[in-house]
Write a structure and sequence with these properties.
548 residues; alpha/beta; Serine Threonine Protein Phosphatase 5, Tetratricopeptide repeat; 3 domains; 6-stranded parallel sheet; 4-stranded parallel sheet; 25 helices; 9% strand; elongated
Amino acid sequence: MSNGELLRNALEHHKNGDFEKAIDIYTNLLKKNTDPQILNFLALSFKSLGDYDSALTHLNRAIELSPNFVEAIANSGIIMNAIGHTDKAIKAYQKAISLSPNLPAPYFNLAKLLQSKSDYDKAIVCYKKALELDPSLHDAYPNLAYIYAAKKSPIKAIGFYIKAIELLPTNAELYNNLGVVLFDNGNINESIECYRKAIEIDPNYASAYYNLGNSLRAIKDIEEAIECYKHAITNDNSLSYAHWNLAILLLLTGRFDEGWKEYEWRWELKDYITNRNFIQPLWDGRDIKGQTILLHAEQGLGDAIQFIRYIPSIAEKGVRIIIECQKELVSLFSSSENIESITVQGERLPPFDIHCPFLTIPYIFKTTNENIPTKVPYLSADNSLIQKWSALAGIDKNRFNIGIVWAGNPKNANDKVRSLSLDLFAPLSELKNIQFYSLQKGEASAQINTRSLAIKDLTSEIQDFSDTAALIMNLDLIISVDTAVAHLAGALAKPVWLLIPPIPDWRWQLNKDDSPWYPTMKLFRGYKEGEWADVVEKIKNELSSRQK
């Protein structure tokens, strides 16, 4: 058999997946003639077997014999990328391109590497050049779409996903990814169509069910969103965000029995607060009489204020209670009975036997709408501090004194739907015999100097939530967006009117104007996300009617 016939035979074995046989033939051929092309073929067979070291050795030998052997240089880039030598792989592709600028594969492979390093602008140039040379490189289109989405250029991303789908119309992942970009761009209905198409192609596509649930939630189709999250979990029980979002909607709709259990999946979220991993066990409801339990805050200030209400119920278990919380809450929580000690987050903890994060407590107590501990006040302010703030604020008992908060923490993921600007409250200035007091902290407090609502601002004197509580106790009403101040007013049993968006935080539930958590709270729900004028008008009318 001639050398040519042997080579064709080896290539056929390689094509059929018989790499060991191909290697044998290539090796015998190399004994007769050290041909760079045969070395290249041999390297590809070793690559197919996962023997990257041998593959790279033979490619380097081929390049040594033929320094401008473009195919071997490009293949060496593939091998170096596979073994993690990314920078060397980039140099190999760049050299291949310099030697043969009309080959599409090196551009495409270089683009993928640049993309992996988030060097998006250079990756775009390489992908587009690869497509110019070979429009059939289907994978370049979704990769370009991904890059443009990452660069916050949704229109271009959508265009490339549509092109990719034209070429691969039965690819469920492409429809799902297009749906994500459409959703992020505000095209909710179009995203729903994409997710449904992805599910039609692949009925077990967990991520598509999850994303469909997100879109349905955005258009307030809560029940179908719940079903989508359940489908996602059925197909992939490890999908922590599906569990989490399911928990939120179950709690939002008052299905606490299911919701609290799913809420425990929060510890699996990659961007959730780090699990503390104490060596002491997590309380699961077992008898802990005679032990010391650590209750620790894990989320925001408002959450800690909301769930400190469970202290009396836990104390009834015959335990010693220690608290770890944010610095701003230490003085306030000291007014709560049954607490042995309070530690600021980050400081050294005293000894304890068992622990429980605040947001797990309602799960332990199997909390429902019917058995929420609603006895208020469960927090209090020091009488001397109340008197101090009365004098400091110049409280006039002949006027109706209202504390107001118009914005939450701008770092909160939902802040854009829960906060508003102070100027939206300007219509309230038309009401007579009302004095407004700012309870607003943070960046939004600067709006006081530029808006038309007459408002006293003493917040520079507020050191922590004990001061806020003392000021609140001097007021007749608190009007607030969804912030810790609203929780505090409710915990102090002060009348509080809460402005919430159409799909609010889970604890305010749906279709209610009161709260099972705070008996003195009234809810004012927005009709459309981001639009508050009608809500403020309703508040104005209600205040006006009280003056008559």
